[in-house]
Amino acid sequence: MKITVVTNGKSSKFGVDNVGTIPATLAAYIAITTIQPDLVINAGTAGGFQRKNASIGDVFIGTKFKNHDRRIPIPGFDKYGIGDYDGINVNKLAKDLGFKIGTVTTSNSLDHNADDDRIMLENDASVKDMEAAAIAWVAEETKTPFFALKVVTDIVDGDRPTQEEFLENLGAAAKSLQIALPKLVNYIKGKSLSQL
To answer: How far is the C-alpha of 120 from the C-alpha of 127, rounded, in Å?
Structure first.
């Protein structure tokens, strides 16, 4: 098994990590068309929801992907804006590793407004991130198997400001991700996609 790690890199202009759907789309497209992988896994952090029993550090496997900030109120484009991308079925993997499973909803903003909240609820979101739906779109367009591994940094439907909770818990979430990702890699090693 060969593993290639791809990141969005850093902004040469601002000196911070590139985040959001534009860098994720570009990185995913270049990686998929160049490397032609058998499987793409988007690993990272996300906000979780109390209504989905999420706690800081919980690991979620995303197998359905939607957007919550692409509001295009024109028939046909309204559904296109939200999107609806399926990852591969990895229910056995999630169960065997003790990970939660659900829908990842994506936007280009760390925070959220009332419209986002309504759409996230309609999407039945389990976690909220800034990349997965964009990568899912590239995976669907290129017919590349895909799913996401997300660790909770903040509680979206909680009572704390997102940026405060995110910054406070990023270290703990990173530790959880450092434990979950090798477990995931060891689990999939030697298995076909149908065995996941």
So the answer is: 9
